[in-house]
Amino acid sequence: METTLWINARLAPHADPATLVESASIVTQGSHIAWLGPTHQLPVAFRQAATATHDLGGAIVTPGLVDCHTHLVYGGNRAEEFALRLAGASYEDIAKRGGGIISTVRATREATEDELFQAALRRLDALRSEGVTAIEIKSGYGLDLDTERKMLRVARRLGRARPITVSTTFLGAHALPPEYTGRANDYIDLVCNTMLPALVEEKLVDAVDVFCEGIGFDLAQSERVFQAAQRFGLPVKMHAEQLSLLGGAALSARYAALSADHLEFLDEAGVIAMRQAGTVAVLLPGAYYFIRETQLPPLNLLRKHGVPIAISTDSNPGTSPTTSLLLMLNMACTLFRMSVAEVLAGVTTNAARALGHPDVTGRLTVGDKADFVAWNIESLAELAYFSGLPRCQLVVRHGATAYRA
Ligand code: NIG
Ligand code: FE
């Protein structure tokens, strides 16, 4: 196995500004971290075994970033709808008029697998250029078996085309397709009894998500989807309490969900349930910003009860058309008043927990996969402070260079 030294780093193994290790090195063997710490303590055996040495030039090194909630694969875009919203229509108004998610469903059904792949690849590369080494990608713009399959196949293909870990999530219960108008329960039958089993059989599903909302699915329907996931031993997650409080987060906790996401309208009972279940709160400042939400997620309750908080792009054409996870750090600080330490944990350890992928820990410790980023910054706060400025110098994923500025 190749032994490689990565020397001259300022190491932030937990992306924590309080614990920076100066003049540090990382030793990788194959895809794993074999050692890390202050260079003067580097064991001689590793020095002798090394077949390559890379000087990181004093760069700050953090774990690779994890984007744990994205809808990266979709056809078309919704710039026209954005213009309508600017003229006064609300997100819910547009959805009720057959726009919104359903307009992306039309475009996604029409697109070929290759077209979806090429469009998503550009978005993926934008995220990679900011140090993202693991990402979740949801289906949910197909709402029929063939198109959901097409989306998930594209997600898998993205993970083969680029050095990045992709976790797939089946979001068949994202919206009611027009052909099922007035028959939501029948559609949930299709999701649970036809779509999910077929997609699991094809090994396309790592987790299952539901949009539990007035314009999505109710609690009983959401629970049926969770039960179907459970039959296949798949972890669940939920778009919960985004536009109203339905109790989806508490339901998610009952199913030991990896995460409940959005959560602007979450109440204390839901927070407590999440804490007890170990369910991560995934906050999505891009969506909060883009739909001009005014209800803030209950940060103080999440803190008070010690619920782990992750931050993600929610990259999607309707509510968060962004491919910048670093911008989300900035927004989480400015809009949600989160601290730099909180938002950095939110895109590393806590996001990894929400992702639930065995290869992804969101931290740098011996035995973990070597996924790390060398940044052209003086302090970790700069990651959340600047927007637009390229700061990512080098990305290593599974021990190999995955991106270089
Ligand atoms: O995460 N809330 C539902 N799903 C997406 C939006 C999807 C869309 O509008 O296309 C979200 O915000
Ligand atoms: Fe989403």
Number of strands: 15
The backbone outline, from C-alpha atoms, is globular
The description of the largest β-sheet is: 8 strands, parallel
Name the poorly predicted regions: none
The hetero molecules present are:
N-(iminomethyl)-L-glutamic acid, fe (iii) ion
Please state the structural category. alpha/beta
Overall pLDDT score: 97
Enumerate the strands of the largest sheet in spatial order, edge to edge or round the barrel: 5-6-7-8-9-10-11-12
Could you please describe the fold and organization of this structure?
The chain has 405 residues and is an alpha/beta fold. The chain contains 16 helices and 15 strands. The strands form 2 sheets. Strands 5-6-7-8-9-10-11-12 form an 8-stranded parallel β-sheet, with helices on both faces. The chain is globular. It starts with a strand and ends with a strand. The relative contact order is 0.15. The structure holds N-(iminomethyl)-L-glutamic acid (NIG) and fe (iii) ion (FE). Residues 69, 71, 239, 314, 316 line the site of fe (iii) ion (FE). The site of fe (iii) ion (FE) has 5 residues, from loops.
